[in-house]
Amino acid sequence: xxxxQILTRxxxxxxxxxxxxxxxxxxxxxxxxxxxxxxxxxxLPDDVNDxxxxxxxxxxKLAEGNYxxxxxxxxxxxxxxxxxxxxxxxxxxxRLHLGVDIWGAAGTPVHSPFxxxxxxxxxxxxxxxxxPTIILQHNLDGLILYSLYGHLNRECLAGLYEGKxxxxxxxxxxxxxxxxxxxxxxxxxxxxMFDMEGLKGDYPGVGRYSxxxxxxxxxxxxxxxxxxx
Length: 229
Known about the structure:
The protein is α+β, with helices and mostly antiparallel strands. It has helices at residues 3-13, 45-49, 51-64, 212-218, 223-226, and strands at 31-33, 69-72, 76-77, 96-97, 100-103, 109-111, 116-124, 131-140, 143-150, 165-166, 171-174, 187-193, 206-207. The chain is built from 5 helices and 13 strands. The strands form 3 sheets. An 8-stranded mixed β-sheet has the order 1-2-5-12-9-8-7-10. A 3-stranded antiparallel β-sheet has the order 3-4-13, with no helix packed on it. A two-stranded antiparallel ribbon has the order 6-11. Strand 8 (131-140) and strand 9 form a beta hairpin.
């Protein structure tokens, strides 16, 4: 049995084991799936390249239907990453999104769904990058799982240290604004990993499309925890 199956079995066996990442009431809160692939002809390249225009487009889409959050992105092939040279490599541009994005207002609280410890953190302060980032380590009955939170507010990094204990449902950060979060519309990038591969404070949130199946093996679907679907 692979780790993805072990995680799925654990969460099925213990349905209350996963807490919240953001405040969400499925009975009252509406979610909007945001398609950020090339199929979205409503969002023009010029809009994506301009952070303010991109933010205005997201805000408008959420407001139109009174949506709590915009969601989506796991294993989504997004041409919009051409907005930053960060994702361009000689072999193959990185365009495959590896986590789930939760689009909402700057200042939205972010929580840890499991008890754990701070694995690492950093301010990845580049255009198109994560900005402030926290990575937590969890032990789920012997299965080691890492959770990554990107595009946070800068103040959340103050007072952190590796090994700091975090309680289930503890607030760890806020959605950062677009001047501190890597220059994106406010949102949370939430990602799961089984293996950090020696990295600290950062783990790629965008990969090569040709490596999708391999990447899935290390990065399970975050909706196992979010339960948005």
